[in-house]
Amino acid sequence: MPGKFxxxxxxxxxIVTMKKQHPCGSKQWEVLSAESEIRFxxxxxxxxxxxxxxxAEKSTVAVEPSRPKE
Length: 70
Ligand SMILES: [Zn+2]
Known about the structure:
The chain is mainly beta. The chain has a domain at 18-63. It has 1 helix and 5 strands, in the order ββββαβ. The chain has one helix at residues 53-59, and strands at 15-18, 28-34, 37-42, 48-52, 60-64. The structure holds zinc ion. The site of zinc ion (ZN) has 7 residues, from loops.
C-alpha cells in the first residue's frame, strides 16, 4: 500500500476551484505546474500563488481537467 494517498491529481492546465474566494472575486485557478509544490494562476486577476500539495488539497473543492479523458 502506498503510504500517501493523493485526493486530487493536479496537471498543468487544469482549472481548480478553491474553497476561499480570491479578493478579486474568482475561486478558480489554473495550474501552471504540479510537482511537490503546485503553482496556480488566479483566473480572475492573474495573481500567481504557490502552495504545497498538502495545502493545495486542503483548499481544493474540485479539479476540472483541461483535456477530456480518452
Ligand atoms: Zn484573483
